[in-house]
TrEMBL record:
This is Endonuclease/exonuclease/phosphatase domain-containing protein. Residues 116-322 form the Endonuclease/exonuclease/phosphatase domain. SUPFAM superfamilies: DNase I-like. GO terms for molecular function: catalytic activity. The chain crosses the membrane at residues 7-29, 41-59, 66-87. The keyword Cell wall biogenesis/degradation does not apply. InterPro entries: Endo/exonu/phosph_ase_sf, Endo/exonuclease/phosphatase. It comes from Aequorivita sublithincola (strain DSM 14238 / LMG 21431 / ACAM 643 / 9-3). Keywords: Membrane, Transmembrane, Transmembrane helix. The keyword Ribonucleoprotein does not apply.
Length: 341
């Protein structure tokens, strides 16, 4: 029994050391080393494990040697680092996008459903049932191949306006809209296999908004898929330049293949222009729907200051490795600056 306890203690100390090192290295998340970048993703898991192991070390330690103090300092440092990023997605901070209140009849309300369907998922019915239940005004589906495009065509009666850019390398994209698409451009921001959409959408009262649909490649390598090597998040940087010159209220939505607490402002250059609907409200972890222990937010909605948020939901599983995300937004007239929220 004594030997087993010694082994468990050693494992505990090794885990404590590894968590502390990983949390500290995660500060260099924008480095070109993709393995360091990946440490930016599991911050929730790092925080929880660090806290649990810290408690275990305190409880089980009878004699305090120098290395135990070092491990405790390392764990506390890691907890502090991860708290710095995670706290923005709790109710301890103010929301970035104000909650819609005292709505006026002149305010435009509309809903958006995002879904990375997972190209290899061959169960379309769960998604179609969710769409029928929520009845969103806009639907953005990602990882759409030829099979998924055919299955989604049943939406055409309810959604007369659409854009389809299909491929077989998990980056096909489809946008369905109940509102007229006055203008839509398909761009390949950083990779010839990875489309994005820039749409001008005319709402029910004739007001126009700009809607950017994006699904950039992840910051790591996957065999036979478009690779991010050397691109340095160029897709987001190019998108940011467009948004800085915006003339309309703007929404950016999609599977960014990056977590919300990543440095999106720096990557896009849109500080004080784009606001995250999650801030002050919760994580709404959209990935991985297939693994409860490894979940973080990858599917995002960012808006400019003219919008208010009425509802934000993570929807049930649809057979994909992503949960769909549903939002209800309000475009208000003469919107005050967000500092008045």
């Amino acid at each position: 029994m004594g030997k087993i306890r010694q082994i468990l203690v050693v494992i505990l100390y090794v885990l404590a050391f590894a968590l502390a090192i990983c949390s500290i290295l995660s500060l260099f998340r924008n480095a070109e080393i993709r393995y360091i970048k990946m440490l930016d993703f599991p911050r929730i898991q790092f925080f929880i494990l660090s806290f649990v192991i810290l408690i275990l070390i305190i409880i089980t330690s009878k004699k305090w040697q120098w290395f135990k103090y070092l491990l405790v300092v390392g764990l506390l440092t890691g907890i502090s680092i991860n708290t710095f990023f995670l706290i923005n997605y709790t109710s301890l901070v103010s929301v970035n996008v104000p909650t819609a209140k005292n709505l006026k009849t002149s305010d435009d309300q509309f809903s958006l459903l995002l879904s990375n369907v997972k190209m290899t998922n061959r169960k379309a019915q769960p998604l179609l049932e969710l769409i029928d239940l929520k009845k969103p005004d806009l639907i953005l589906a990602m990882e759409v191949d030829g099979w998924w495009d055919k299955k989604l065509k049943v939406l055409e009666n309810e959604y007369p306006y659409s854009q389809h850019t299909i491929n077989e390398v998990t980056y096909g994209m489809v946008l369905y809209s109940k509102f007229p698409l006055e203008k839509i451009e398909v761009d390949y921001l950083a990779n010839e296999n990875v489309p994005s959409f820039k749409s001008t959408i005319s709402l029910s009262d004739g007001k126009n908004i700009s809607f950017h649909s994006i699904h950039p490649v992840p910051p790591t390598h996957f065999k036979d898929l478009p690779d991010n090597a050397g691109q340095q998040e160029n897709a987001l940087k190019k998108l940011g330049k467009e948004i800085k010159g915006r003339k309309l209220p703007t929404i950016v939505a999609g599977d960014l293949n990056d977590v919300v607490w990543s440095n999106v402002d720096e990557l896009t250059g849109t500080k004080n222009i784009l606001y995250d609907v999650r801030v002050g409200r919760g994580f709404y972890n959209s990935f991985n729907a297939e693994n409860f222990l490894m979940r973080w937010p990858l599917d995002h909605v960012f808006v400019t200051e003219e919008f208010r948020l009425k509802k934000l939901e993570r929807l049930p599983k649809i057979g994909s490795d992503h949960f769909p995300i549903y939002t209800e937004l309000v475009l208000v007239n003469n919107a005050a600056h967000l500092n008045t929220k």
